[in-house]
Amino acid sequence: MKNLTFNSIALLLNRKCVHQCPQCNLIKDQHRRSELSVDQWKDVFCILGNFYGVKFYLVLGTEPLLLGEKLVEIVRFWTEMKTFYGLYSTSPQPFFDEYKHKLLDVGLNNWSCGIDGLPGFDNPEHVDAKAGQGFEGLKWMADQGVQTMSVVTLNRSNLKYAAKILEYCQENIKNGMACLNPIEWQHDETFDFFAKKEDITDLLVPESARAEVWKLAQKIKAMAKRPGYKIQNCDRNLDIFHLVYDKLNYRCNGTVGMGVDTDGTLRRCGYCKGTEINKLSVWDIPKDPEYVYEIWYRDALSCKGCFWSWVQGLEETYGVVLPDSDFYKKRWEDKK
Ligand code: SF4
Ligand code: SF4
Hints:
With about 325 residues, the protein is an alpha/beta fold. The chain has helices spanning about 40-50, 70-80, 95-105, 130-145, 160-170, 210-225, 235-245, 290-300, 310-320, 325-335; strands at about 10, 55-60, 85, 110-115, 145-155, 175-180, 230, 260, 265. It starts with 7 loop residues before the first strand and ends with a helix. It binds iron/sulfur cluster (2 copies). One iron/sulfur cluster binds near residues 20, 27, 61, 63 and 90.
C-alpha cells in the first residue's frame, strides 16, 4: 500500500461567526452545515491519525468560540493526544472572557487571528471590526504563554498600514508570530471560503499599486530581521505577491492537504470543497483509505489554484517536514 499521509488537515469546526467580513463566504446561509458532536470530532481525529498519520490541524475561518464547551472538550482531547494545531479565533466578547480560562485549563497552546487593520492604524473608512477584540485576545493569550499568530491579509485598504500593523503586533504581543497573506477570491463554485472577485473589488490591490507593494516588501523584509521578530513566510509571500498579485493562480498540487467540513464531509483543502472529494466523508476513510486519498489527490490536482502559504509556515513553526517542500522552491524559481 502507498504511504498515505497528510501532514496537516484544515478544519471548519463550525460555520458561524459574529462578524460579516465582505471577503468571507463561509458563513453565508447557502453554505450552512450541521455540526458534529465532540465524540464525532474525536472519532474524526482518531481516523485521520490512524489512517493518514495527521499531526497538525488548522482550524480555519468561522468563530470556534461560538462552540463554547464543545471547543473546550476538543482542545482537551488535542492536549491528551499531544496534537499540534493552529486555532483561529477573533476573540469576540463575551465569549472570550467566558471561555479563556477554561481553554487554558485544558492546555490550549495556540491562539491565532487575522489582524487586517487596527483602530488608529487603519484607513478610518475600513477599520477592521474583528481586529480590535482579536488583538486583545492574542495579547492576553500570549501573556499566559500561549503561542499566537497574527495574520495580516493585505488588501487595498490596509496597504499603507500593513507594515505598521505587523510591527505593532510584534512589539505588543509577547513572543507572537506574525505573517502577511494576500487577499484571495474564489475562482468557481468549488470554492466556498472566499467571496467572488466582483464582490470585493474595493479590497483588491490594483495593478497600479505594484511599486507600493514592492516598497512595502522591502520594509517588511528589513523588519523581519530585527532581533526577536518572528514574521513568517515574509520573503516568499512578499516576493511572490509582488510578482503575481493580480493572477493568484498558484496550485499547491496537493501539498496543502485535505480539509474536513463542519459535518465531517471531506474537502479538497481548507479553502475549497472541490468537485469529487466532497461526496465523501471522514467515515469513508476506514472503508478504503487508498481510494479516498486518490479521489482527494485527483481533486487537488484539478484545482484552479490559489495563493496561500500557511503550509510553508508549518514547516518553519512546527518543524513538520513537508514531502514536497522543494516544490515551492521550484515553483518560485519558475516564476522568476
Ligand atoms: S472572515 Fe472570519 S471573522 Fe470574518 S466573517 Fe468570516 S469567519 Fe468571521
Ligand atoms: S491550490 Fe491547493 S490550497 Fe489552493 S485552493 Fe487549490 S487545493 Fe486549496
